[in-house]
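Entry 14. Structure prediction run on the chain below.
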Amino acid sequence: MSCTATNPPVDSSKTTPGTLSVSTLTSSAGGPYAPRNVLAIWIETSSGKFVKTLLVYAAERKFDLTNFMSNSSGNATDAITGATQSSHKTRSCTWNGKDTSGNLVANGDYKLCIELSDTNGTGTFKTITFAKDTIATSLSPGNMSCFSNISIKWTPN
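Output returned:
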């Protein structure tokens, strides 16, 4: 007797493939390590469930990214990674609409989470809601503490 598990068919109208492009100019939070900083950018569902890390620069100081560590358990699968950054500049990353297991996630509202620290401890944390949908969207939120020139673009395939 064999038992084979199969996944139910995916309704492609509810799981649109595409690319989310993100960029932001970082700046100092005024901590004692500035301009050196650690940074993470990740995706969560609208209810706050971790989906995927896009970028994390914090090899030795991940613990200072308290929101990132709490929400993702430090999961950086397929993310852009690197050491603590020595300066501020525009940081860019993309998301293919998939979770850490490589599954295309459902269309709907998601949160882009960004966190930066230049101190021993919690730094600046911001979230921006965007729609993953069948239509292209482009957001240019106003400047926030530590993050300016923010660009978020969802482009369906």
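Residues 17-156 form one domain.
Filed with the rest of this week's runs.
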